[in-house]
């Protein structure tokens, strides 16, 4: 079996600071026991942030008896950590390149999406023709370490009269509750897969066509447009996207490959630097809190050992923080 050598992933540890909650999780159904009551009162006016490992359901009986729900103040914030979901993080990372998946222009002009950090790093799925690109960027949730949370019971100012909805039922209450947080410190991890980043499939043979081309001439034109875009990121004229009609993954038993585009070492480096810059400058400011990235530790991981996957998480002394003279691993070759 042919071994692939070189940098196989670029991993990072992210430290972020902030204050308050930036990623809420709605108003789950909870219960409140009033003094002298024989059964709990169900409440749905408690704002809940995203908490790791927390469920509002206390018990579930298989005999069909009613579920039991937690009291809103029963959460142990030292065990159920506040977090920001990786979906929220990805949204804010790439919000500078907004696009509408339902736009009719997308299917006709998908090359514009492909020639962007969103297309090359975040990935996409076009629902109209199923063109897609798997994201090479993996991110974990941002998990808070400080647990500076507090349960608050709040009252509405002004009139305390209950309001009614169109059906004539009560729609609001003068009392509500929520969790508030003070200072926060998040830790998260991420990784860029070089194998997924470097190759852009242009045929549907393996079910991963990034965009449709009708002939080799169109494939070369796509590669030229990608090259122009990659070189525009930092004026690096060595960054290139190269088209071939049959790229075969190294180690394949048969020379059955795909039409596609392979990014060279300089092109990969440009996109890796773009991803790191996006992460370093990430900030989120919502109505009830904010967060910003304070530090990013990088590892250009060229190990071939399975146990060294995310070694930055287990042993920071073993990482390679700079690319130096190392080359990125090449997983495909034209045959």
The share of residues in helices is: 10-25%
Find the structural class using helix and strand composition.
alpha+beta
Percent in strands? 25-35%
What's the number of domains? 2
Instruction: Measure the end-to-end span.
Output: 18 Å
Shape: elongated
Q: Give a short account of the largest sheet.
A: 7 strands, antiparallel
The overall pLDDT, averaged over residues, is 89
Q: Count the helices. How many? A: 8
| Low-confidence regions | none
**What is the succession of H and E elements?**
EEEEEEEHHHHEEEEEEEHEHEEHEEHE
Radius of gyration: 25 Å
DSSP strand count:
20
Description of the structure:
- This protein is elongated.
- Strand 2 (30-32) and strand 3 (41-43) form a beta hairpin.
- The model has no long low-confidence stretch (mean pLDDT 89).
- It has helices at 86-93, 104-108, 110-114, 117-122, 194-198, 216-232, 265-280, 311-314, and strands at 9-20, 30-32, 41-43, 46-47, 57-59, 68-69, 83-84, 124-125, 132-133, 137-139, 142-144, 149-155, 175-181, 183-193, 199-201, 241-249, 258-263, 283-286, 289-301, 332-334.
- The longest helix is centred in the last third of the chain and has 17 residues, at 216-232.
- Helices cover 20% and strands 30% of the residues.
- By secondary structure, it is an alpha+beta fold.
- The chain has eight helices and 20 strands.
Question: What are the key terms here?
Answer:
335 residues, alpha+beta, 2 domains, seven-stranded antiparallel beta sheet, four-stranded antiparallel beta sheet, 8 helices, 20 strands, elongated
């Amino acid at each position: 079996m042919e071994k692939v050598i070189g940098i196989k992933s670029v991993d990072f540890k992210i430290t972020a600071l902030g204050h308050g909650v930036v990623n809420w999780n709605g108003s789950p159904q909870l219960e409140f026991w009033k003094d002298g009551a024989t059964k709990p009162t169900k409440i749905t006016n408690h704002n809940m942030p995203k908490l790791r490992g927390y469920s509002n359901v206390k018990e579930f009986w298989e005999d069909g008896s009613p579920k039991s729900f937690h009291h809103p103040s029963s959460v142990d914030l030292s065990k159920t950590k506040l977090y920001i979901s990786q979906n929220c993080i990805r949204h804010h990372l790439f919000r500078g390149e907004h696009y509408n998946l339902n736009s009719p222009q997308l299917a006709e002009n998908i090359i514009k999406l492909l020639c962007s950090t969103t297309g090359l790093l975040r990935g996409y799925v076009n629902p109209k023709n199923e063109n897609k690109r798997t994201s090479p960027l993996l991110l974990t949730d941002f998990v808070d370490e400080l647990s500076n949370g507090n349960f608050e019971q709040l009252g509405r100012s002004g009139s305390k009269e209950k309001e009614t909805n169109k059906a004539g039922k009560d729609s609001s209450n003068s009392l509500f509750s929520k969790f508030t947080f003070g200072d926060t410190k998040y830790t998260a991890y991420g990784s860029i897969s070089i194998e997924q980043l470097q190759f852009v499939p242009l045929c549907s043979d393996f079910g991963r066509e990034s965009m449709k081309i009708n002939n080799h001439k169109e494939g070369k034109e796509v590669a030229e447009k990608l090259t122009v875009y990659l070189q525009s990121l930092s004026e690096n004229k060595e960054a290139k996207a190269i088209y071939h009609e049959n790229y075969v993954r190294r180690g394949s038993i048969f020379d059955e490959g795909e039409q596609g585009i392979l990014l060279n070492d300089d092109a990969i480096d440009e996109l890796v630097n773009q991803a790191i810059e996006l992460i370093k400058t990430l900030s989120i400011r919502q109505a009830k809190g904010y967060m910003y990235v304070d530090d990013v530790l990088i590892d250009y991981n060229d190990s071939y050992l399975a146990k060294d996957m995310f070694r930055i998480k287990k042993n920071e002394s073993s990482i390679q923080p700079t690319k130096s003279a190392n080359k990125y691993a090449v997983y495909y070759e034209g045959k």
